[in-house]
């Protein structure tokens, strides 16, 4: 049976309509398959580009790049070059991304300057060149001051450069345009706290419950009231930390204030926790009545519950002086649980200033490459007179970072 050209055109028309309908329903996998079928019958630039954009949305950037090279390697179209740049950025190939964004700028439409300047900034930021990123973002907001995410990105670059007040100004402009976007408030909290504007910072910090849904799930497990400042005299309160081990160690110091309000404190920390085995450490804190496992928490009889990271906000802390600054608030673990420490010749360090070093976070964190560091960077501290460094962790995990693979943080370690 012979198919006429008119029949092929009709098949292609129906396939394009079906693909568009799939896109509108956000069924991107079906849309990609339909565009592939269209391209097998006849090349169509629109279908090819749409398929590539959808592959990117599905986080299939390697496939997207394959088809970009196949169909558009020498294209001068600004939109195609912009897509090239976005895909390269997501693959952390920032120099190639910058080249493509610059080609897009050469052929862009006037109204797209802000988009391309923003994308160029993202690529430069990925390379760690935050000054250049700021320059492009400032050009973008001059062209289009009504786009919230550009102000947000500019705030991020100022924050990277530790220009906290400029970051705060940019985040607030983004919030004026989009008041209910959690990430804008979350980053504003970071900037306020870094700038020691604690009252504003702790208020914005509460947006984490909307920014991170896994956090909110932690406190929604209980059918008892959430503590928001009510009297705690003679009451039992269950406290927990929805974040990581480092956050728990930092904020656990605030429990002294809760005890001073007359509460009996129960602190939840899983016995088998991927965040770290800290049960014995937390048991050393006198104000805690009991450290309990997750299963026990859900059957515990208590009056209120709350995250320890919300305590500064609830208590209305406004300044650095509100942060508990006792000489120490965590004690060493039972020597029976750490015989190596018990048998160590501590006399050798009696007269030395001792510094404990923590140098690695979770390798699963998406920003691990920004949070963890090589032990060798502590070597500069070894030259300090009468000083001894101690590593407070062991970490032999091989990590894969965006621009660096097979990373061993303890290579070339200092004399800890």
Question: Can you offer a commentary on this structure?
Answer:
- The chain has 416 residues and is an alpha/beta fold.
- The protein is 50% helix and 9% strand.
- The chain contains 21 helices and eight strands.
- The protein has helices at 5-24, 28-41, 45-57, 61-72, 78-90, 94-106, 113-126, 130-143, 148-160, 164-177, 182-194, 198-205, 208-211, 213-219, 245-251, 255-260, 279-283, 294-297, 311-314, 339-342, 368-371; strands spanning 236-240, 264-268, 288-292, 304-307, 353-357, 387-391, 398-401, 404-408.
- It has a four-stranded parallel beta sheet with strand order 3-2-1-4. A two-stranded parallel sheet has the order 5-6. A two-stranded antiparallel sheet has the order 7-8.
- Strand 5 (353-357), helix 21 (368-371) and strand 6 form a beta-alpha-beta unit.
- The chain is elongated and about 90 Å long.
- It starts with a helix and ends in an 8-residue tail after the last strand.
- 27% of the residues are buried.
Can you tag this structure with a few keywords?
single chain; 416 residues; alpha/beta; four-stranded parallel beta sheet; 8 strands; elongated
Q: Fraction of residues in helices?
A: 40-55%
Q: Helix segment count? A: 21
Can you count the beta strands? 8
Mean pLDDT: 90
- Biggest beta-sheet profile: 4 strands, parallel
Which stretches are poorly predicted, pLDDT < 50 over at least 5 residues?
none
Strand sequence of the main sheet, in spatial order? 3-2-1-4
Order of helices and strands: HHHHHHHHHHHHHHEHHEHEHEHHEHEEE
Task: Choose one word for the global shape.
Answer: elongated
Give the termini separation.
80 Å
Radius of gyration, whole Å: 27 Å
Given helix and strand content, the structural type is alpha/beta
What is the beta-strand fraction?
Answer: 5-15%
């Amino acid at each position: 049976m012979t198919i006429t050209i008119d029949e092929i055109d009709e098949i292609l028309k129906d396939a394009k309509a079906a693909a568009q309908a799939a896109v509108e329903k956000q069924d991107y996998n079906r849309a990609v398959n339909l565009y592939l079928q269209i391209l097998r019958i006849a090349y169509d630039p629109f279908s090819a580009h749409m398929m590539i954009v959808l592959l990117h949305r599905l986080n299939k950037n390697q496939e997207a790049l394959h088809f970009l090279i196949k169909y558009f390697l020498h294209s001068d179209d600004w939109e195609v070059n912009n897509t090239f740049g976005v895909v390269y950025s997501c693959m952390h190939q920032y120099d190639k991304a910058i080249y493509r964004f610059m080609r897009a700028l050469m052929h862009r439409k006037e109204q797209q300057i802000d988009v391309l300047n923003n994308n160029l900034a993202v690529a430069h930021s990925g390379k760690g060149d935050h000054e250049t990123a700021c320059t492009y973002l400032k050009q973008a907001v001059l062209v289009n001051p009504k786009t919230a995410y550009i102000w947000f990105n500019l705030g991020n670059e100022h924050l990277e450069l530790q220009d906290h007040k400029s970051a705060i100004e940019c985040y607030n402009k983004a919030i004026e345009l989009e008041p209910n976007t959690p990430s804008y408030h979350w980053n504003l909290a970071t900037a306020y706290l870094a700038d020691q504007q604690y009252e504003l910072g702790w208020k914005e910090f509460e947006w984490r419950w909307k920014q991170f849904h896994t956090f909110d799930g932690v406190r929604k497990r209980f059918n008892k009231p959430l503590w928001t400042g009510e009297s705690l005299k003679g009451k039992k309160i269950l406290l927990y930390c929805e974040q990581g081990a480092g956050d728990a160690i930092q904020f656990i110091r605030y429990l002294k204030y809760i005890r001073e309000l007359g509460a009996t404190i129960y602190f939840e920390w899983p016995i088998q926790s991927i965040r770290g085995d800290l049960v014995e450490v937390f048991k050393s804190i006198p104000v805690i009545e009991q450290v309990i496992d997750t299963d026990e928490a859900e059957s515990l009889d208590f009056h209120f519950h709350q995250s320890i990271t919300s305590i500064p906000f609830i208590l209305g802390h406004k300044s650095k002086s509100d942060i508990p600054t006792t000489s120490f608030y965590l004690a060493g673990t039972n020597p029976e649980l750490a015989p190596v420490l018990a048998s160590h010749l501590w006399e050798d360090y009696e007269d030395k200033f001792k510094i404990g070093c923590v140098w690695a976070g979770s390798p699963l964190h998406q920003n691990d490459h920004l949070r963890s560091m090589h032990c060798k960077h502590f070597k500069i501290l070894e030259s300090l007179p009468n000083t001894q460094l101690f590593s407070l962790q062991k970490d032999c995990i091989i990590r894969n970072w965006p621009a660096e693979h097979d990373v061993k943080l303890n290579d070339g370690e200092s004399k800890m």
